[in-house]
Amino acid sequence: MEWLDEYEKLVIRMNMPRVVIDNAICPTATLVQVDSARKRGLLLEAVQVLADLDLSINKAYISSDGRWFMDVFHVTDRLGRKLTDDSVITYIQQSLGTWNEPARPAALEGLTALELTGPDRTGLLSEVFAVLADMQCSVVDARAWTHRGRLACVVFLRGEELASGASADDDDRVARILARLGHLLRGDGEAPGAVAAVPAAGVAHADRCLHQLMAADLDRAPSFPAPALSPAVSVQSWAERGYSVVTVLCRDRPKLLFDVVCTLHDMDYVVFHGTVDTAGDRARQEFYIRRADGSPIRSEAERERLNQCLQAAIERRSLEGVRLELCTPDRPGLLSEVTRTFRENGLLVVQAEVSTKGDLASNVFYVTDAAGKAADQSAIDAVRERVGMDRLVVSEEPRPPQVFSKDGPGDRDDSVGGGLGLVYLGNLVKRNLYNLGLIKSCS
């Protein structure tokens, strides 16, 4: 019946996410509030949109009671400023104000993606790009991470004959590319590599894909000593409320919340409540979670597995290294030549972000010496002279200025697992609503 169709449309419109962006409530950050009917994965989608815009999330409050869901984020740009660009604000509202997942970049449509994992070594990424250049594959976009002696890489390739797979010759060419890359990633131990070709449309998000590749590869990773500033992760049980409580304390950095929420989501946990707070360069995150079937974590083995996966997810993007930015006209074989220059000067690429816009290549590399320690300045200078001093520049990761709470960072209790997750949830909600500027003090 026609009136029933109109009623269903009304219900849908009433339950669509409502996005409010406010610059007046907080003096130091822009508030992004998302209210919606509950939907699996909505938290990850919201955090993903903010992370892709390179926004810093200084505070956050997450609540999902009954059938309703509310997120509040305190965000700034990478320089610690409020959001004033109308195009950015409009994009956030449009991306989060629908039931659709965040839009994929149009430049990646119709491409082929290669997913690679394997034991890392000096020059491996250079060899991968050399094979692709030799096979006349144009790299449009690529992301590479290394962690615990393993490499994960996602490469998006241009080329109708590669993407179509419409003939036996096309299939044979793809098979030859995979065979040559598979030989590079084979390794000489018990943890060989793997490579697969998939349509770019099947890669939901490059960073999520890297997390998934490395999570699947986690058990193969060799044992490495914990870094000096390793994240502290606690997984506790709150049986009275039917929650498991995850507390994370670590150094703050860009996309930290995305990495944690992505890991929880991919491990099939649902965040019902949560808080995020930063002070100086430290971050505390707390989440009340259950499995997708509604049950809390019950076994010690599952708690330990979640702990290990969260620590690994945080460490992957926390690697130290010299940040080199390459901006130059794109041409065939560019990546192969640049990464070969790194290898010839004893530099290890621990992270890479490759992108092309039109005829311009804009790439970022994080490099260390072959042992994973700080790169020698002479090696950096030699690489820059070869590539071009004006094209390859040393830069620092832009970070917002340190802003401490009125109590000062020294007055914060930064112990993990000290029972913070076991306080009464109503008091936690009220406290964080006040901290986020959504209610006034009653004192």
From TrEMBL:
Key word Repeat present: yes
InterPro entries: ACR1-12, ACT-like_dom_sf, ACT_dom
Superkingdom of the organism of origin: Eukaryota
Annotated ranges, domain ACT: 113-192, 245-321, 323-403
Record keyword Repeat present: yes
Keywords for this protein: Repeat
One Gene Ontology molecular-function label: amino acid binding
SUPFAM superfamilies: ACT-like (SSF55021)
Function: Binds amino acids.
Protein name: ACT domain-containing protein ACR
Native species: Sorghum bicolor
